[in-house]
Every structure is written in structure tokens, then in C-alpha cells.
Amino acid sequence: MLTNNNWSKPQFDFFRVGVLAFAIFLVWVIIIGTPWGLGLSPDALVYAGGARAVAETGDFMQLPTKFPPLYPMLLAFAQLLANDFYLGARLLQAMFMGVNIILIAMLLKKTERPLVIIAALLILIALQPSFINVHLMLQSEPAFLSFVLLDLLIVENLCRRGASLGLLLLLGLTAGAAIMVRYAGMFLLAVNIIALLFLVRSKRSVAISNAVWVSVVAFILYRFGRFSTLREAEIPPVACSSGIRLTNSTSNKRSLQLASGFIFQPRPV
User: Fold this and answer.
1) Are 192 and 170 in contact (CB under 8 A)?
2) Which pLDDT score is estimated for 5?
3) Ranges 192-196, 221-225, 242-246: which has the least confidence
4) 254: which strand partners?
5) What is the mean pLDDT of the chain?
6) What is the pLDDT averaged over residues 85-109?
7) Cβ-proximal residues to 229 (8 Å cutoff; 6+ apart), any chain
8) Cβ neighbour number for residue 162 with a 10 Å cutoff
9) What CA–CA distance (Å, rounded) separates 226 from 220?
10) Would you give the end-to-end CA distance of the chain in angstroms?
11) Counting beta carbons within 10 angstroms of the beta carbon of residue 19, is it exposed (0 to 12), middle (13 to 18) or buried (19 or more)?
């Protein structure tokens, strides 16, 4: 059961420093684990093509229409900061690894279990092969996980402190951002509405108003993202770089040799 807990109490500073050190270590693991670039998949090629087109032309109509737009926009922003798409993508995924570890630790800390148990659970979660692998790939799951964890943390604060305009606005924006990363984020609307109606201490009329308000904010953000990708656009091909190289398969057909060791060969039309 979640109970009152202050993350910033001085007596818990050693735990906070340990979590930050562990997060920095995992960020370093992601960076050194992708010297030839992130692992790719067919979906990742769409993300990469759209992000590079946006970064190089500034035309948001180049975003892929098949997927939500926020993750390619983050990749494009990372490319502009790093002046290289592949380095920017590696740093972005590494950042999400550190953020996810910190958010998981904060949620675990809210349970007020012994620190030894919390630390053990955090290490077990972080060292799961699937958890590490998803951060080594050019996939939207790490970004989606960050927004989901942040949403749950905001809901916990609303349940403990009561509704406030700032937290409600942040909750709506976070849920909307999660939906703009992956459409599966729609489930957060149901979670948030149930929490606001039954868990947050307020009058029923106020609770209903808050739930509707948060849903509207999330939906507006979602529709704003969708509006930017309404027009079908042809995604330019991904240029060869350190993470990708063109090769010939045994059947003499062109394919992509990926940094992760996989080979992506487009199906014949």
C-alpha cells in the first residue's frame, strides 16, 4: 500500500545517491553497448527515416503516418543536439534508461519497505535482459515507459496530497505524451479517471470535473500530434552510417546488415 513518504528527507540521502549512481552506470552501459549504433527493426527504419527527414528539412509533414509522432520528433531533436542521428539516438535511449531507473526507484520508495528490499527489487528489474535489450534497440518502448511511470507517480501524489491544478495539468500532459509515443497509452486515461473518481480525496462533482479535465487535456495533446501527421508522406531511405551498412544476401538481393547482427531484407512487392 502506498503511504506518505518524502523522497528528499536527509536521512535517505545515501539511498538517493546510490540510485543516481546506479542510473548513471546503466546509462554508461547503454552507451558502450552500442558502439556501432542501436539495434534496428522494420519499425525502427520508419522512425529513423522520419526523424532524419524532420531534422534535415524542418518539415513535420515528413513524420511517419503509421506511428504516433512524438518518438520520431524526439529522435529528430536528439539528432540536432548531437549533430549526428546515430549518436543522438544512442544518447536518447541511454537517457531514458537513467530516467526509467530513477522513476522506478521513486515508485518503489513510496511503498516504505526496507531499503534492502527496495534496492534488491530495483537491481533485479534493471538487470532483466528484456529491460536492457529494449534500451539497446531503436524502439519507442523506453520513452513510453518513462511517461507511464511518471503518470503513475503523479497519480500517487494526487491520491496522497489531493487534487491541485498543477498536478492535474501535468497528469493530462503526461498521459497525452504517452499516447503520442504509443497508442497503447490510451489505457492511462482509464487509470487516471478511476484514480480521480475513487482514490483522490475530493467531492464527487469535483472528482468528475477533474477526470474530464485531465482527459480533455490528454485528448487535445493527442489530436495535436495526430494533426501534424495527417498527410501521407514518403519517408526517405535511411542513409548508411556506422550502425547500418548495405550488404548482399546469399540470394543476391539487397538487404540491411544491422549493428545488432540482424539482417533486414524487405519483402518483394
Assistant:
1) no
2) 54
3) 242-246
4) 248
5) 76
6) 94
7) 60, 61, 63, 64, 65, 69
8) 11
9) 10
10) 55
11) buried
Domain residue spans of the chain: 10-264
> How many Å apart are CA 130 and CA 107, to the nearest integer?
20
151-183 pLDDT tens trace = 999 988 888 877 777 888 888 889 889 988 988
For residue 5, the one-letter residue type is N
Give the model's confidence band at 250: pLDDT under 50 very low, under 70 low, under 90 confident, else very high. very low
Q: In the predicted model, what is the mean pLDDT of residues 19-27? A: 95
Write the CA distances from 187 to 37, 152, 215, 222, 261, integer angstroms: 32, 12, 11, 13, 34
Residue 23, pLDDT > 90, answer yes
What is the DSSP track for the chain? ------TT-GGGHHHHHHHHHHHHHHHHHHHHT-TT--B--HHHHHHHHHHHHHHHH--GGGS-SSS-SHHHHHHHHHHHHHTSHHHHHHHHHHHHHHHHHHHHHHHHHTTT--HHHHHHHHHHHHT-HHHHHHHHBS-SHHHHHHHHHHHHHHHHHHHHH---HHHHHHHHHHHHHHHHH-GGGGHHHHHHHHHHHHTS-S-HHHHHHHHHHHHHHHHHHHHHHHHTT-S--PPPPPPPBTTEEEEE-TTS-EEEEETTS-EE-PPP-
Measured between alpha carbons, how far is residue 23 from residues 27, 134, 184, 241 in Å?
A: 6, 16, 26, 29
Cell of 171: 497528469
> pTM surpassing 0.90?
no
Average pLDDT over residues 76-85: 92
Q: Are strands 254-258 and 244-248 parallel, antiparallel or unpaired?
A: antiparallel
